[in-house]
Amino acid sequence: MPLYTIHQIAKWTGATAQLKLPDEEISDLITDSRKIRNSDRAMFIALEGHNHDGHTFIKGLIEKGVRNFLLRYVPEGLEKTEANFLLVPDVLASLQSMATAIRTASEAQIIAVTGSNGKTIIKEWLFHLLNSQARTYRSPKSYNSQLGVPLSVWPLSPMAQLGIFEAGISEPGEMERLEKILKPDIGIFSNIGSAHDANFASRKEKVLEKSKLFKDCKKVIYCSDHTELCEGIDQLPDASKWLSWSESDTNADLYIKGIHKSPDGSRIEGRYQGLDLEIEIPFSDAASCENAIHCWLCCLELKVDNTVLKQAFLELPSIAMRLEMKSSKWGSIFISDVYNSDPESLTIAFDFLHQQAPGRKKVLIISDLLQSGLENEVLYTQVAKMIASHGIDTIHAIGKDISAQPELFEGLNITFYPGTDDFVDKLDSLDLTDTAILLKGARHYRFEKIAAKLEVKSHETTLNIHLNNMVENLNEFRKRIGKEVKVMAMVKAFSYGSGSFEIASLLEYHKVDYLAVAYTDEGVELRKAGIQLPIMVLNPEPASFADVVEYQLEPEIYGLDMLYAFDQALGDMGADANYPIHIKLETGMHRLGFEESDLDELIEHLKGSSNIRVVSAFSHLAASDEMSKEDFTRGQIETYRSMSDRLAEELDYPFLRHILNSDGILHYPDAQFDMVRLGIGLYGITSNLEARRKLKVVSELKATVSQVKYLKPGDKVGYGLSFTADRDMKIATITIGYADGFRRSLSNGRGRVWIAGKLHRVIGRVCMDMCMVDVSDSDVRQGDEVEIFGEHISVYELATDLDTIPYEVMTGISQRVKRKYIFE
Ligand SMILES: *Cc1c(COP(=O)(O)O)cnc(C)c1O
């Protein structure tokens, strides 16, 4: 771990230093106040962004023991605190200057990877291939942004001989800053795709912009078969440093003569400097081959011997840079990270655990960590410290190395096992009820065996929910609303079919202000899972009022009868005064709400009752997604304005006003009032095409091919023999049917699914648990993954095939479909 004095950091950042504790040394930089676990030797970087100001967290951090701050101003009242304040005009720029200084002081040879896809995998594979040749540092996870790059340079030790970094940009102007920090010696340009296209005039402009990373590189590796990439590169002055590989151009620096795929992997043959060479990798998809060849040429240019490389390529790890959360037996959840086993990735997994399971007891199942390059004692001291600071309740440690160091884990509730099977044998006798379990094992330890025992067995069909993308969508909406405007996240109907506490914890962690559910039960479930945000209940039935109060839920009150009944119930229960309620106003949808003519009576009752207090008064738009009905919507907004004005005049206390749902936020930005109610937009779904391009896909519904069959002309398919083959055909049976939400109306060509890179039509009738698709013209095999919707088929398209809207598609996915929460 790095360790620098506060004076050193003051110098690097060019700060005006107010040092009350001049002897402090820093090893950790913190940018997210929620992730602080250990305040010793930590420095908080007070970043400012849209709707976010790091300075507001400083007071709380001081209370938690943090003593060092890089900031733009000292918040009021803290001037006299015993702390070190490094004052700078632009915090991010200073952090970048510090990274530049650390990079400059290092003699390591720096490899930098950019491009639209594959950056992280290339970086991780290069690390795997080169770590045995030189002391190699690589940036953690996919830290590649204006903030991520400087943070990833911070741990670069002066002892490192090689450093591997990623750089990514989303708009023009950013790469020059990353180039100044990294000053790479060798570059890799992976490929160019559609990401962030909207922010660049053309693909070529994007290529030229990204190439700025390689300004002073001696060598840059790229694939000359990518025409768009070449068109950009051809315009650059110093052609000689660009080293290409190609499957078609025999003059390429590395000419790929052939790629031979088998079920176990691929053998790649190439010619390099007149020599015929080959490697084998344990993957056969096109993207893996491309990533591997980039690495191959890079290693050859670094003069690594091909026989050494050959062995290392055979053992390329699978880099699923992601954590997955699923439900487990005994009401527990488990998060598995069986791909990465280095200490950095442990921190990421702990943070995920805290984000998703704030209220549960935490259990860690961990194996020996391999290939960290550290001495065992140093490594496990570090691991023990991390476990202690993250408040893990129980630890099961598997493997000879970790078991050999029991004294390092003193004071922790830890049990050691020699091997995975020894643990599996004991598993049934452990009490794991209602816990959150983190599985963290090196590949060799085969933690899949543990996962298989923990997992609730259901069938292969899975709804994958990409939590990071949801957070990005939340932030995209935040950009469009005023700084002071609150966000209520709608998590009704099992969060639009995607989960309950899993989504609510994420949103709570990311600081939405309010949650709303449809029925009381849904709110009770969230409270039981430890959610503390205020929760509005849209449809609280009188029979559930007792639960409403017991679980501190806030009812929507939409009529006089209901108002009297709730007030009465509060009195009967002896609840505290001023119980929070939300008043729903009828403005044109004609569903629920007080009419204009009810207002007098409503106001009279509210004034006379001390049991209740209005926290908000709101209404709902009937056609916010249809601009052809703009006049109607504007009318609703005006009616709402006047009705809520009336309430505001009569009540002698303030309350929140809100009317906009997701599409309302996009189409009527002037009607935000005090709060907005964000629902389906969090899933990247909207009628607004401009916004749709900026939002990310959150959910993917996946099935599997159970069997492949061959038909002769005249053969029939499925119930009712509704399909007859008129030629030789190949069909696949897939694991989804109408009981999963893949409705029967998709039979006979209406429905389409994506397998092995292509769309395929449903043939015959959809059955309860399965259906058949025509795969005559494709290389589809048993076990292949099937996308029902996701990256290639949007929820809109499926909704169109079904003659419905995305809301119904999403909420119609049955509960037996396994939900998997992915964090990348
Ligand atoms: C469902 C709902 C929303 C959210 O609507 P989206 O279109 O999903 O954003 C907002 N307000 C109320 C009252 C709702 O019932």
Can I get a quick summary?
The chain has 27 helices and 42 strands. Strands 11-12-10-13-14-15-16-17-18 form a nine-stranded mixed β-sheet, with helices on both faces. Strands 32-31-30-29-28-27-26-33 form an eight-stranded parallel β-sheet. A six-stranded antiparallel barrel has the order 34-37-40-39-38-41.
> What's the shape?
globular
- Beta-strand level of the residues, as a percent range? 15-25%
In whole angstroms, the N-to-C terminal distance is 24 Å
Average per-residue pLDDT, rounded, comes to 92
Radius of gyration, in angstroms, nearest whole number: 29 Å
Instruction: List unreliable stretches of 5+ residues.
Output: none
Spatial strand sequence of the major β-sheet: 11-12-10-13-14-15-16-17-18
Our count of helices gives 27
User: What is the tally of beta strands?
Assistant: 42
Percent of residues in helices? 25-40%
Please write out the topology.
Blueprint lengths: L3 E2 H8 L2 E4 L5 E2 L1 E3 L11 E4 L2 E2 L2 E2 L4 H6 L4 E4 L12 E4 L3 H15 L3 E6 L4 H12 L5 E3 L9 H6 L8 E5 L7 H9 L3 E4 L13 H9 L7 E5 L3 H7 L8 E5 L7 E9 L2 E8 L2 E7 L4 H16 L4 H9 L8 E5 L5 E5 L5 H14 L4 E7 L8 H14 L4 E5 L1 H4 L10 E4 L2 H8 L7 E6 L7 H7 L7 E5 H13 L6 E5 L1 H6 L3 H9 L4 E4 L2 H9 L6 E3 L7 H6 L3 E4 L2 H14 L5 E6 L14 H10 L3 E7 L11 H21 L5 E3 L3 H6 L7 E4 L10 H6 L4 E13 L4 E2 L5 E2 L4 E6 L17 E4 L2 E6 L7 E4 L10 E5 L5 H7 L4 H6 L6 E6 L1
Parallel strand pairs: 4-5, 5-8, 8-9, 10-12, 10-13, 11-12, 13-14, 14-15, 15-16, 20-24, 21-22, 21-24, 22-23, 25-42, 26-27, 26-33, 27-28, 28-29, 29-30, 30-31, 31-32
Antiparallel strand pairs: 1-3, 2-9, 6-7, 16-17, 17-18, 19-20, 19-42, 25-34, 34-37, 34-41, 35-36, 37-40, 38-39, 38-41, 39-40
Helix pairs in contact: 3-6, 4-9, 7-8
Bound molecules: pyridoxal-5'-phosphate.
